[in-house]
């Protein structure tokens, strides 16, 4: 007799009405999903062999985008100690996420052509006004 409140088991797995309490039975979620996520498990096993990961690390480390090696947060470094790849400083890769929370360096370089064009237009307008004013005084 099965409990109607329990979801149906995935295909290929036996239906079990026994809830898992106490010692882990075969119905426990960790055993019921054995063999699932093999790709993720192999990825994390490979990640644990990256430079610096084998040795452990701090509570929160960055990882190199090129070699997956551990980069300590303190003291700050400008290049990966394992492969020498430089950091642009705008993205930090952690164990299973990448943070892009640093602001861009500056928008001034992108706005420079607009400022130059505005300055050129103002210079031309001032020169035109000066030329018109200087012509108006002559008989």
Name a few traits of the molecule.
mainly alpha, elongated, 139 residues, two-stranded antiparallel sheet
Structural write-up:
- The chain is mostly helical and 139 residues long.
- The chain folds into two domains: 77 residues, no CATH class; 34 residues.
- It is built from three helices and four strands.
- The strands form two sheets. The protein has a two-stranded antiparallel ribbon.
- β3 and β4 form a beta hairpin.
- The longest helix has 29 residues.
- It is elongated, with a radius of gyration of 32 Å.
- The termini are far apart.
SSE topology:
Blueprint: H1 29-32, H2 38-47, E1 62-63, E2 70-71, E3 92-93, E4 98-99, H3 108-136
Antiparallel strand pairs: 1-2, 3-4
Task: Put the structure in a nutshell.
With 139 residues, the protein is mainly alpha-helical. It contains 3 helices and 4 strands. The mean pLDDT is 76.
């Amino acid at each position: 007799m099965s409990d109607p409140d329990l979801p149906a088991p995935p295909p290929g797995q036996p239906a079990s009405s026994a809830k898992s309490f106490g010692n882990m039975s075969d119905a426990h979620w960790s055993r019921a999903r054995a063999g699932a996520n093999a790709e993720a498990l192999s990825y994390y096993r490979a990640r644990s062999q990256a430079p610096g990961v084998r040795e452990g690390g701090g509570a929160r480390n960055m990882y190199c985008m090129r070699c997956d090696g551990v980069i300590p947060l303190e003291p700050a470094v400008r290049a990966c100690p394992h492969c020498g790849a430089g950091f642009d400083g705008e993205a930090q890769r952690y164990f299973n996420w990448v943070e892009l929370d640093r602001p861009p360096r500056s928008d001034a370089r992108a706005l420079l052509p607009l400022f130059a064009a505005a300055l050129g237009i103002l210079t031309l307008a001032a020169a035109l006004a000066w030329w018109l004013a200087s012509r108006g005084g002559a008989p």
